[in-house]
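Title: Prediction job returns without error message
Component: structure pipeline
Severity: low
Priority: P3
Assignee: unassigned

Description:
Job completed but the reporter wants confirmation the result is attached to the right record. Sequence as submitted:
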Amino acid sequence: MKKQRLTVGYRARILPPESAEDGFWRRAYAGHEVLLLERSHGANEFQAMVLGEGTNLPLKRRNETTVLDQVAWIPETDLVLVDTNLEANLNFIDWYQLNEDKFCPACGRWFPNNGLQGHSCPNKKCPSNSE
C-alpha cells in the first residue's frame, strides 16, 4: 500500500527516532501530533503547529496545552498521517492564528486581556506575575 502524501491542513504524528542520526524533530517531538500549516517549495517539508501529548479531537481552544509550539521545517519522512479532516483542522488553525495573542506569552494560559494596561495573567503561578 502506497503511503499517502501529506498536505496543508492534514494532521500528522512525528515518528519516534530509529537511530542517533535521525533528525531533530524526531528527537524533540516524537509522538506529538502536528497540524500542517505550510509546505516548503519542492523540499517536502512542513511548517507545523505542534500539539500537546495526548491531544485528541476535538481540539481544545483556550487551553495552554493544546498548542505547544510552532516549528519549521519538518521533513515529510519524519511524519505519518493521522487524519485528513480539513474542516476541523483548518477551523482550529484559523481560530488559533486569530487568537494567538490572547494567550499569555510567559505561561501560555488563555488571557484575552493580554497587553491591556492594568491586567495581569489569570495564572497566579505565572512568571509574569512575579516581575
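Comment from assignee: result matches the submitted record. The longest helix spans residues 86-99.
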